[in-house]
Amino acid sequence: MSDRARERTGGRTPAGEPARTADAREPGALTQFAAALRTPAAAAQPLFAQAPKAWQRALPYVVVGIFVVSLLPTTIVVLTNDYGLDGGWSGALGVAQTVPLLLALTRPLPAWLLVLVADTVGAVLLAQADKVAGHPWPWTPMAVVGYLVLMACLGLRESIRNLVGVWLATGALGAVLRFLQPGATANTAALLFVLSGMVLALTGALRGLGDARQRIAEQESISEAERSRRTLLEERARIARELHDVVAHHMSVITVQADSAPYRLPGMPEPVQQEFAAIAASARESLGEMRRLLTVLRAPDGAGGAGGPGGADGARAPQPGIGRLQQLVEATVRAGQPVELSLAAGAAQAAPPAVDLSAYRIVQEALANVVRHAPGAPTRVSVTVDDDEVLVLVVNGPAARDAVVEPEGPGTGHGLVGMRERVRLTGGTLDTGPLPDGGFRVAARLPLHAGDGTAVGTNAAHEANATNDTNDLNDSNGERS
Question: Over the stretch 84-98, which tens digit does the pLDDT of each residue have?
Fold first, then answer.
């Protein structure tokens, strides 16, 4: 289970098992090496630069260094003794054909050009050497080995277009050199053409696989960001629908009071009656606008269908509050979850509508998380109130040993996001996190007296990054969706 997944479940693992350590999850050296081999390096960046281990990053230098140290003296000796080339030319060709391999780790194309020129000059010089008869030409065995090492570096760094161009240039140069071939020599142009093509194809395929995986990872990252943003917007729309109901109720009360004022207060002067009539007309007009907006928010393409939170039944149902927490807890207990409720007397009456609704939804979503991620865990729900705020606390222990934890799926993703948005809306604070015993804690402080809403709205605009552990829930009865 990844660290992010463990955060979503509050540090819990299935059946109460302890979480695995980082060492247990760490892939083996062979797996890391294969991943480094597939990971393309950026321009002017050494091969395996993205490898996690220092020895893996140093491995290309060690391998190429071994080839250079081995091929350099071998080339000089073979060209001098076997081909009969002058010692000075042999030393110069040995250096020119092998040392550029070190450059291939960071700039393979310039290294290839240097080696290609050196090999071509060597082929022209060897064509006139005293002992060339009976030996490979135009490419000596040492030149073939060094060229293949260079092809491997190229294949892991360059694009397919460049690899095809290098391969065709190699074949074309070998075909041109055939016109200079000395008698009684074994032509190695076709051999190098075939072997270089095989090495380029293999290493190019590895690079292509790495590029594909990198693009997939980038796309997954983008998709995750979009999913988080969509989750946040869905939660805000859901909260907006509920708060519209609360505001619409107050607007209806204002309309009724303004219309009935002349009858409840006889003898009212005519200007006052006209003022009340204007208030009633404005409230009625605002109420109509809100109802039209609410119809859009509750459209079938929004969150929830018929019978759900956005359906016809949900649209007509009164919004719940702290007074219905007892029913919510009883429904959760009937579902098999042991829950205890401690509810302060008068909490439902003391809380304003927005806080009343937010407190209920926070408890509802916290219990849904417990049912989903820690079935059978003993859970305590506490709601207390003082002169300034309502404190909502939901604490659960670890999941029961024989419990089956529901796996994460596309239905998850709204619990904690919704809690944060509701708390931010009321200007409160939210504290969530795992407990040392494997349980989880949700604590929300909701102020009873809302301050300036401007700061809250500004914070909401700048803090739209809350996208951790969450769960969707059926709003009508508080049970798992």
Answer: 899 899 999 999 999
Q: What is the pLDDT of residue 10?
A: 42
Tell me the residue type at 85: L
pLDDT for residue 429 is more than 70? yes
